[in-house]
């Protein structure tokens, strides 16, 4: 357990202190008055300009149901949220009551003692309704530390107009991807694929497609440097070197989105979280111009990763009951159905898929079977930390600074230093 007993004891002491001090002028969660009250600070990590507007509106809906509760909405950039939360929780000051946690962060935060266990609380209302693969990321050492809010995976977004102009079909394999990209370049002068180069999550589809993985948690073995991992690095390098794809080492999200939205590239690999922003682009004023298909298969098949976000409650929250209620509201069937309808995000509750908003979403309909077969990441405390060394080597491969063999080896060495005692 990293940082060990010290961090856990600190948070526990803060929680006890908050409980002891909460009864005089501001009842904790409204216990003494029988009504929820006080402030719930929520750190949302969704995309600014599209998703955040909807989530803020939903949070305001909770305030209408509970007029004595003030939800303090704070949008924290996704790339900063993980460390920002850990720093605040460790310091015992500035942490939110509720955080929107990427699925891989949940076991790490729980291991550090920063999250309140949710078993037996209102946050887990109707917990049997959650998709099993979504609920898997919320568990740590037989306790539940988060509630799944959305689940996702990845696909190829493509510009139908460019495809028609080039006379090509959606690529089913990596070999097809190279052929299609060449025809697009020859016919239209545009690049086939924009491959995001500054985020290792975009590498996982290629790694899984070659039959590889980051680690084998059951066997406590590092696997990223096995031949399948080397092959995956070779695949992405070849896509860039051949001209089938363009990439970058910085500002990957903005450059990728703007290039695709403006019609400068024909394809990008992305997930349902990108749909709302993509449809705001000039090329997709006619929404029907956006196509989505499975990520082209590698030699071992299709390998899209499972992703998503959970809502977790800070163990040191001064308003636990209201925080539990807020999480329950934000992950309810009705709220998830609204999110599916307005943002095309996939619900984590089985029954939400029967709601009309989800039924009417073509994006939800496409991604649901993709999610059902997506590859789970290992739900260990260190999962979130596996990406930093991987993205360093991934970027170096794409920009010609290292070889696939050296990248795989260096990543494996970093993992073994992180995962003490692993093979």
TrEMBL record:
Signal peptide location: 1-20
InterPro entries reported for this sequence: SBP
Entry-linked SUPFAM superfamilies: Periplasmic binding protein-like II (SSF53850)
Keyword Signal: yes
Cited Gene3D superfamilies: Periplasmic binding protein-like II
PROSITE patterns according to UniProt: PROKAR_LIPOPROTEIN
Gene Ontology terms describing biological process: maltodextrin transmembrane transport; maltose transport
Entry keyword annotation includes Transport: yes
Keywords (A to Z) from UniProt: Signal, Transport
GO CC annotation: ATP-binding cassette (ABC) transporter complex, substrate-binding subunit-containing
Pfam families, per database record: SBP_bac_1
Molecular function via GO: maltose binding
Family per similarity comment: Belongs to the bacterial solute-binding protein 1 family.
Full protein name: Arabinogalactan oligomer/maltooligosaccharide transport system substrate-binding protein
Organism: Streptomyces fulvorobeus
